[in-house]
Design brief:
heterodimer, A: mainly alpha, two-stranded antiparallel sheet, globular, B: mainly alpha
Amino acid sequence: MDIQTLTFIIVGLTFALYIAIAIWSRAGSTSDFYVASGGVHPVMNGMATAADWMSAASFISMAGIIAFAGYDGSVYLMGWTGGYVLLALCLAPYLRKFGKFTVPDFIGDRYYSQTARTIAVICAILISFTYIAGQMRGVGVVFSRFLEVDIATGVFIGAVIVFFYTVLGGMKGITYTQVAQYCVLAFAYIVPAVFISIYMTGHVLPQTGFGATIAEGVAGEGTYLLDRLDGLSAELGLAAYTSGIKSKIDVFAITCALMVGTAGLPHVIVRFFTVPKVRDARRSAGWALVFISVVYLTAPSIAGFAKVNLINTVNGPDLQGVEYDAAPDWVKNWEKTGLITWEDKNEDGKMFYSGDARNEMTVDRDIMVLANPEIANLPAWVVALVAAGGVAAALSTSAGLLLVISTSVSHDLLKRTLTPNITDKQELMWARVAAAVAIALSTWFGINPPGFVAQVVAFAFGLAAASFFPAIILGIFYKRMNSTGAIAGMIVGIVFTLAYIIYFKFVNPAANNADNWLFGISPEGIGTIGMLLNFIVSYVVHKMTGDAPQDTQDLVESIRYPRGAGGATH
Amino acid sequence: MAFKSEELAKAYWRDNISLVLKLLAVWFIVSYGFGIILVDWLNQFTFFGFKLGFWFAQQGSIITFVILIFVYVKRMAALDNKYEVHEE
């Protein structure tokens, strides 16, 4: 059976599984959406959170970026896991005790202000939208490859599927569906890594294989894989794999923006509001990170193996280039999507990949994880499985984000603020309109991406870092912080960060280099500066306008210890 | 007020903050310290075939993060019990 048929079968089977679980677990639990997840063990909740959290950026894009960026790719590995430490230690238990369902609800109540709530809603929409714009590209990459269409058509087909998945939805929040999605996603990520690790190094664990010596019969046998990568990089005019080229301050800033952003992402924070106890909120964060780490510790190995394999197949073991006519199928299959191109500059009929003028290949970073099993000649079912994993990752996160956008618009913005008199039916209609608009806009961004999936998603984290994180931290740890300070801080933080990203990505992309960046920090890392500005502005404005009222200060006192935590309320 | 006295409430919060700061110090040193600031210096050492700084940036920091959260869960549970503010 060919790869395409197998992909249809495996993707179809996983979809059937999600729907079956949704129907089965719904039977007893429609009465109360939130209690359903409340009765779930923290281990299960952690697994579901991991599925919710790991998107196309983690699954499809991250290892590809690491493969090309080497050490510099560590920003994503550390950034997207380290945030859970902040979340578990500084946010989750207190927000759980506070007992609200959404971040704007917390901001609005803690800062006793409708304006604060509205600004928080707008921030939530901006963050979720940026995030989903990145996802659409990832969905498009998967569909374009397996339907063998160009990337624009792939994005379009993916968008239609995501839209129906969400609008027909109700799947989100059903924890067991997400548990299944996690299993599919993790299995699909690890199986090819194990195969490739055994082939390349003889190690069953990709995590140790990554640091081992290359096995017999593979080009470069006997040398350490990482030394081989550094050697190949030097020979081909690329930056050394284990050292990277980004400046230290930029690596620092991006890592910080991603970590802090993780702790400020509305759809992740929400997961910790609905566990039964404060203690479970802490444990859930720990288990979520355990399950995320399973994938994140595999990612750098996949990146390393993929890079060596790519160079071996394109340039040949002797590094003289491989005849295009003898190119393996995966090169030709991916050429159909337009994501790999070959231009025979020296007209020798051979492909050659390098970091200098000899280069004849353009390889989109976002295809590496999907192409990896094909590059390593793994069985067709493994290739199909990876596609199913990619779809699971992209769908589960996109659906969650679309729900945040549509409920923010219809419930928080329209019903609670602008037009309180609309009926439930109108509210639902506006929710669908908001989802449709968000999908349409993000389809455009998917076809004309401002960066690779993981980079676009990084902007969303920067925005979250610059807006929510300081407001929540100050709200918990600085009980005298008042509404004026928090509002001013959020506005300055998000406007500054958004303006910086828009300037370098859309207004003046030609200037997007280290010479023009503020303190040498790229748009991906600027959220760190936005966060610092937010903290400073909040503090200064608070000092000028006086302390929060006493009842608010008492409220903050009461969220600082676990006893007496009731169920969450709207 | 769940605490028997104002002093106990303050002591609980102080112990809590001090635990969080200690754990965050480890969090910072391993990721930003070993993985970013000191990475070049640490790369002169090898660890199971990895350059040490590179290993911290791509694997070691993640493993440390997981351990930190579980240490926190355990120590906070003990603290809640000590001050009798644990959930019934």
